[in-house]
UniProtKB/TrEMBL annotation:
SUPFAM superfamilies xrefs: C-terminal effector domain of the bipartite response regulators, CheY-like
KW RNA-binding (keyword) present: no
DNA-binding found in the keyword field: yes
GO molecular function per UniProt: phosphorelay response regulator activity; transcription cis-regulatory region binding
GO cellular component: cytosol; protein-DNA complex
Task performed by this protein: This protein is a positive regulator for the phosphate regulon. Transcription of this operon is positively regulated by PhoB and PhoR when phosphate is limited.
Source organism (scientific name): Marinicella litoralis
Protein name: Phosphate regulon transcriptional regulatory protein PhoB
Keywords: DNA-binding, Phosphoprotein, Transcription, Transcription regulation, Two-component regulatory system
Occurrences of domain Response regulatory (ranges): 14-130
Domain spans labelled OmpR/PhoB-type: 139-237
GO BP terms: regulation of DNA-templated transcription
Amino acid sequence: MATLTDNSSEMNNNILIVEDDMAIREMMAFSLRREGFATFKAASGHEALEQLNQVNPDLIVIDWGLPDMSGIELIDMIRRDDVIKDVPIIMLTARAEEADKVKGLERGADDYLTKPASMLELMARIRAHLRRSKGFELIQSLEFQGIVMNSDAHEVKIDGVAINLSLTEFKLLKLFLQNPNKLLAREHILNHIWGRNTFVEDRTVDVHVLRLRKALKTHNKDQWIQTVRGVGYKLAS
């Protein structure tokens, strides 16, 4: 019997399981929770989309044969969503033909595992994809006109001087730095920073942009965040 380890650092990792077979779904959720992951479950494509309105997962496990749409169709929707398009996806399915595997990977899955699958192997693949996705983010250094962000250290410096930002301001600045000279609509900013929560008003974006500008103004960098009336904002020189 395999020994399960205490992985407290994984408590912040949200895993969405999209599987219509309740026994398999519950077994995966139980195994993931026992390993320290936070799990969210959906029995259909539409349930998965509802879950994605509430939480941005760190990884999604998707079955091919869902009752209301195929797993491939769900992946297509996810890859078209600006908020979650880069989330790692593992397809877990009974379809073992090479052509199906190729199709799944070409349509946007990052990995493909056939049933019946070992939970130990699934866990190893989940951790591998999380390491890759988190690792890419952690080494990321973003810079624009003397503004330098280190995501790993959660640090922002302007012309070499560290500044203090709230978590929301940090996320907002990161979004701008990741998309220099690109117009970001208020809706896009809302979705990315707060999740796809329709109860958050556009005015929320304006308030936090104002606060971010105030933090940058002390270093004469607030002018780089430009307002595009009626649409949104962009970071541009």
